[in-house]
Each structure stands twice: as C-alpha cells, then as structure tokens.
UniProtKB/TrEMBL annotation:
Subunit structure of this chain's protein: Homodimer.
NCBIfam families tied to this protein: PRK05355.1 (NF003764), serC_1 (TIGR01364)
Organism encoding this protein: Thiohalocapsa halophila
Pathway: Amino-acid biosynthesis; L-serine biosynthesis; L-serine from 3-phospho-D-glycerate: step 2/3; Cofactor biosynthesis; pyridoxine 5'-phosphate biosynthesis; pyridoxine 5'-phosphate from D-erythrose 4-phosphate: step 3/5
Protein name (database record): Phosphoserine aminotransferase
Transcription regulation recorded as keyword: no
Amino acid sequence: MSRPYNFSAGPAMLPEPVLKRAQEEMLDWHGSGMCVAEMSHRGKEFLSIAQQAEADVRELLAVPDNYRVLFLQGGASLQFAMAPMNLLRGTEKSQRKADYLNTGSWSKKAIAEAKRFASVNVAASTEHDGTFTRAPAQAELSLSADAAYLHYTPNETIQGVEFPYVPDTDKPLVADMSSTILSRPIDVSRFGVIYAGAQKNIGPAGLTLVIVRDDLMGQAMDGTPAMLDYKTHADAESMYNTPPTYAWYLAGLVFQWLKDLGGLAGMAEINQRKAGKLYAAIDGSDFYANPVQPDCRSWMNVPFTLANPNLDADFLAGAKDAGLLTLKGHRSVGGMRASIYNAMPEAGVDALVDFMAEFERAKG
C-alpha cells in the first residue's frame, strides 16, 4: 500500500484522490496564480469554489429549496449552543423547553449545553452504569407536548452506537450528524436542523456544515450574538466574516469525489460492506468483542475489545508496524476503535481484518 491506513475518529483520513488534486492545485489554482488559501473569500475565484461546493452538497443530499446550507466554524460543539439559541422560544428560561435523547458522550455534552438556555426534558436515555450500548426504540421516547424541538445524535462516535431509524416527532428534529453525514442517503425534509463537524466525512477540521430550514431562522433568542444567529450567516451566504476558505475548498473536492463514486447510494453500499466485514471478524472470534447491541451498531465507528486487555499495547504496536494507525479506543471506553469513514478504502478494512486474525493466531 502506498500510505498507511488511518483509522482515526477525527480529524480523519481524507480520500487520496482529493489530496492529490489539492497537491496539484496548491501553488496555482486553475491559472489564478494563487493557492486557494491565499485567495480573498470575496474574490471571484473563491466565490466560484464556494458556490460549486454548495451546489454539489445540495445535489448529494437532495436538499430541498426551503433549506439553507451554511459553511460555518466552531465545530459541532458550538452548535450545541447555537441550535437552542436559534430555535427556542419564550422570554424566560422556564418557558423555553426542548427534548433531548441521551445515547452517548456527544449527546450528553449537547444536553449539558442546552440546559444553559432551556428546561431540558431527556426524553430517553440508554445510559447504564456509565456506558451506552444501544439507541432507544421509538416507543421508549417520552416527548413533551410543548418542546421547541427534539435533538439527537444519530451516531455516537465514541461508543459506536447508531440509531437504526429516524425518530418520529411533530416538532423540528435537530441532528448532530458529525460522524454519519454523507455516509448514505438521508431525507433532509424530516429534519429542522442538521449540523456536522467536517473532520470525519466532509473535510479537514475547522469547517462545520449546517443545514437549516428557512422557517427556523430569524427568531433567535434576545441577546444572541450576530455570529451565533443562523440568519446572519444565511443572509451573508456564509461570509459574514472570513470563512475557513481552504477547508471549504477541500470539502468541495470531497463532494466531487463522492459524485464520481456514484453519490451517496453508491457510498452506502461500500460502507455497509466495510462494516459488515469488520463486525463479522469480531463476532466470529472469542478473542474480540463489540459491546453494542447488533441492531444499533455504527457503520462508521467500530469499538472492540480483546479478551485479554493486557494484550492491548501489543495489538496497537503490531497494528502500527502493519500500517494500521490510530486504533486505540477512546479513554472512556477502552480497547480499540476503528473509524471507517467514507475515505477509508475497503482494502484498509481488509488489511485490519487480516491483521486481527494473524494477531489472534499468534496470541490467542
């Protein structure tokens, strides 16, 4: 293989064709005499890049006309505050209510932030002894009649828990799709707000994609700073201030790469196949285990443990020697974690599965 396979949860690997194209265009983008990182964000060269990127992501996700696509900063963590500040209604905190689903580390952070602004109803929690191994069923959701919205995290990056369905609600649905966006087709019309940090399936860190329905803008809470108002950015076409231009450019190259692969339907087939191979290797062995309920397993983030945790360091060292990088699990979960986002080629998963079998033969 020409490069090691990087299983990092984020910042994650980028598609090699994207990196090669960026390399070719580094010193002179399309005869402009400039690197994209040197361009004015208001110049015609960068505006053409930005407009094409938005058009491509709209096409990939089939974004309806009554939604705005914003290219922002601050990561998903800023959206933990920005979403409630824009969607909550009422002058007093006690009047402002929102429903949240608690399914892992990132939804817990979103809940903690929302409590600064509203009365939060945790409509379902699957936490058990400090761990999460499943998503709640629709029947388990205790939704409030007067909530302004329902927030959930479709894929928990750390725990590897993924919702096998989209929650049904008559309120605007807000989703942190950082780890799962662009991995398969979705029906955007079922959501009020979708947000995603770029550093997993979109591009490099520093960019945040936000898709927001028109009717949810323009009513931000009193005192909301201009930079935290969705309408500010929608009116300025994501250029109220200087955006992360190079990250936006690389995201646009990723969108074009996805289109060349056949769009999100084609990507979904590849992702299902990759995840299936890895879970089969884990389930087919007593040496490895995955803690997540099978119908709630993530396509993107696959945690697994060794039967003997004393072998963890040997596993990681051997994997690194084999060109398999960043497999150490999150400190709150332990063990290993393989993040197999869109840019991870199927050959990378095959190489990991082969190494796992070889390691088990040697140490099991």
